[in-house]
Amino acid sequence: MQVRTAKDIGAFIRDRRKKQKLDQAELAEKVGVNRRWVLEVERGKPRAEIGLVLKTLNALGLTLSIETDAIKDHAVGQEVEMIDIDDVVARAKRPKS
Description:
By secondary structure, this protein is mainly alpha-helical. The protein is built from five helices and two strands. It has helices at 6-19, 24-31, 35-42, 50-59, 85-93, and strands at 70-73, 78-81. It is extended, with a radius of gyration of 18 Å. The protein starts with 5 loop residues before the first helix and ends with a helix.
């Protein structure tokens, strides 16, 4: 799964929690937080503490992996940088200086 936003992580956490038949209170207890924190993270709270998010993923038996956007072009044997369309759009919207 490619994660681009806090909402993506929240949706994934909610999906895994439900697949493991845990309610929010049970997950909160495993992580050491309150149910409201789990609710907010599942809704995509953008300022959730990363340490607690990682602890939540761990409690669900998940790990977080980070990869570069570069891929190898097998035809020519060179790395090719993937284009992030969201970044292109964001740069285009910035005021010109």
